[in-house]
Design goal:
By secondary structure, the chain is mainly α. The protein has one domain. The chain has helices at residues 6-9, 14-26, 28-38, 51-57, 59-64, 74-96, 100-121, 128-131, 142-160, 167-171. The longest helix is centred in the middle third of the chain and has 23 residues, at 74-96. It is flat and about 70 Å long. The two termini are 18 Å apart. The model has no long low-confidence stretch (mean pLDDT 88). InterPro entries: DoxX. Keywords: Membrane, Transmembrane, Transmembrane helix.
């Protein structure tokens, strides 16, 4: 007896491509626009973040420092620069399908930190609509609803890799595949 879902299994290699396309269409512009707001002025803007970058990432520390980044330490600068670079680099890697599993895992970590900063640093936890609730028939909460979809899309890439049309596939042709047919034990 043949498996009636066998034709669907042949579509599995397209799932990472769909996940990367969805990420590119929805989240790439979001993260890159956010990263641009963190750039400092001039040619060294990638190493000298804007005041807004510090305020976005360390809202309470910036308030305590009188919104003067020079009153913060090297740790704050390093985190802000790394966060800004991550918003440029990780989404690009995901879209290209380059080091896909690692970059998608990095994006999941980034989203978790971003969500915690939104909730506790910016006070979103005090607004029920920001955190939201699952199983409440309203799919528009910023943190629980939207970011669950983001993380699920990225988790697909962590599990399945970049897919058939990815830089990983071109560069690492001998890498193990996550295609279900390839994972079957030999008979």
């Amino acid at each position: 007896m043949t498996d009636p879902t066998a034709p669907l299994a042949r579509l599995t290699p397209l799932l990472p491509l769909l996940a990367r396309f969805t990420f590119a269409a929805v989240l790439l512009p979001y993260f890159w626009a956010s990263a641009v707001t963190k750039l400092g002025s001039g040619i060294f803007g990638l190493l000298s973040p804007s005041v807004g970058a510090y305020a976005q990432i360390f809202p309470r520390a910036m308030e305590a420092a009188g919104y003067d980044p020079s009153n913060l330490g090297v740790f704050h600068w390093a985190v802000v620069v790394a966060g800004m670079w991550a918003e440029f680099i990780l989404p690009a890697l995901v879209v290209l399908g380059l080091l896909t599993r690692l970059s998608a895992l990095g994006m999941i970590g980034f989203i978790v930190v971003q969500s915690l900063t939104d909730l506790f640093g910016h006070g979103g936890i005090d607004h029920a609509g920001t955190l939201g609730a699952w199983f409440d028939k309203a799919p528009d909460a910023l943190i629980l609803d939207q970011r669950a979809f983001w993380i699920t899309t990225l988790a697909t890439l962590v599990v399945l890799g970049g897919g058939v049309l990815s830089a990983d596939r071109l560069l690492f042709r001998n890498a193990p595949s996550a295609h279900p047919a390839d994972l079957q034990p030999a008979r």
